[in-house]
Amino acid sequence: MPTYTSFTCSGREALFLFQFMNIPEAEVLFAHLNDAALQGEQVKRTFEKIKTDLIKDGVIESEDNVITIHPQVHQLLQGCKLSSAVMKLHLHTSISSEQSESSLTYGFISGTNMVEWVWNPEQDQVTLTSFESLQDLLRIMGNRIELSDSTEESIHTPIQKHTLQQLLTLTKQSGMERVTHALRQDLHVYSTAIHELNQAFVNIEKQGQFEVSTRRMQDKPQTIYFIGSRAGNWLFIEDMESERKDMFTAFKITEEELVQSLFLLTTRSLSILPAV
After folding, report:
1. pTM strictly above 0.70
2. Per-residue pLDDT tens over the stretch 56-92
3. Which of 43, 154, 255, 266 has the maximum number of C-beta atoms within 10 A of its C-beta?
4. How far apart are CA 214 and CA 117, in angstroms?
5. In 110-246, at which residue ranges do the beta strands (DSSP E only) sit?
6. Quick one: the chain helix, strand, coil %, rounded to 5?
């Protein structure tokens, strides 16, 4: 029988296991797969094929239609299901002016262990890995982001949520004029920060969204956005103290400062839980 400290499978296989274990994020994976074979009349045949492959690989056993999951894989899946809080990192990396890759990483936090779930759609690969501490998990997530080197500079500015969303949807081909126009239209952005932000968005290499939510609580997930480029890295944090709920503050940061921000956002979210 195989031994798993980390477990890798296809997107379809992960969906089968997540649905079998009733893990809420199965819906997210289903939407990302957008697979015609998982809909309509083909579903039963597709899942029988997935089940057969998992049995062949020793991941599950089936006797009299009763499925048993390999104990170590089951433990990883239980870590996802029973987590008290969930971190989500959605990362886009520019390969060229016309090509990019994306990955979706979840961190499931519980009192017993931390489990990371990484979904790479281009490779059709899902990897589950357990960690002993939150610091270890966030360090690995931070290393995966791999921002360009940036000098420490104390630059910050308010920016409207609408402006930020507009800038994040622009492509590299949009050009400097459209970026500059969007920044100048926002009267909250400091004039001293426009050039720096302009250069960062025009030369963007990485773009990400990180959020933390707590299970069984109705609070809105806490979210931060970030971009990385040769011209500097920027972090965008929603201004919760502002009377206007559509304002963010942009900070020019280093990679280390980004990882610290991920950790602080996570621990702040966990502080509202009775116990994790």
Report:
1. yes
2. 999 999 988 889 999 999 999 999 998 888 999 999 9
3. 266
4. 17
5. 114-120, 125-131, 156-160, 204-214, 222-229, 233-238
6. 40, 30, 30
